[in-house]
Amino acid sequence: MVHELHTWGSSLSPKQLPPMPDRSSPLLLLVSSLLLLSSACGDSSGAEADTTTGSETGSETETETETGSADGNPSLPEFFDQDLFTVSPTVVDCELDNGSNTQCYQISFSNYQDSSGPFCPETIDDIGGVGVYDGPTNPGFQVLKDTLWNAMEADGYDIVDDEGNIAMNGMPGDSSCLNMATMDLTLTFLIPVDPELLDTPNEIEIVELYGVSLIDGMPLTGHPPSVVDGPPIPGAAGGNIPSLDPCGGHGDPAGYWHWHLTAENSQSVLDAFDITEVSCTDIPQKTEGLVGFAKDGYPIYSPLVDGTVPDDLDACNGKFGVTEDFPDGIYHYYAVHEEAPNLPTCIMGASALMTLSIE
């Protein structure tokens, strides 16, 4: 199995940044992985890759991680449930996308496969998961149900057959609901030990890796592919809508789980969009506190602090300051309040050239 998710890491100044905003069979999964034109989140173009498969994740220089860091803040691995790690975290030599040669935490997790769904519904009368539709009729974040399928049909996408069945995981050029199976995999991240701020932020493109979730060690990624334009690869066709479970995650065609929402905050997103047909029951919910780390090493927090949205955030929805977890202060991000997807659209720091490997 070979899969690469490339980084289109264009550097933009804050003024240039955009506004914030069936478990199928293994055989079908492998076919879908090769036919990335119909993928839920695959791509094959762009600049430097930040995701690959295989075992090469850093140099041979490795040391066990120690408690704490040079600035007095805790080390990144300390924030995770230690039972999530497949092997003990280490520190390895790594190169960042700003050309810096430094050290990174190497942390590995088993692929998450416990979602109870739902994802794609079988018929137009069934209730599925959630998705983002960007067509002209009834666009937005919504439940996968009859109103969505009728909107897609009105926009020219043949996704419902004469018996009311929903097309799933179709070939390139077909309109379908995408619902990819997950596999038994190990995901390994390289995250800078000492984060380095960039002169200008890096925009997070569609389906680009954003960071790692604290709840399960799975990737946090940028927006899912456009239904109208398809995934950002040459020759891509539109008409496919990726299905997300109510907590905001799904499987990639390469078999690994990833999130398009911060899962711990997903119920508040559903509530903001008046979604009542489904709810996030797999992941404990909260509106404040640490939820993950961006691939540049800076922490990601839930949208609220003391019940309100911080009002002094930059273009990447972050700021420098003291938090409960980092008493010496650190730059940190906040998930975007009541938006879907709710991850910031840029990062302020440099990340490893090969942030994520999958095997």
From TrEMBL:
Residues 42-58 have a biased composition (Low complexity). It comes from Enhygromyxa salina. Residues 42-77 are annotated as: Disordered. This is YHYH domain-containing protein. Coiled coil: none annotated. Residues 243-304, 312-349 form the YHYH domain. InterPro entries: YHYH_dom (IPR025924).
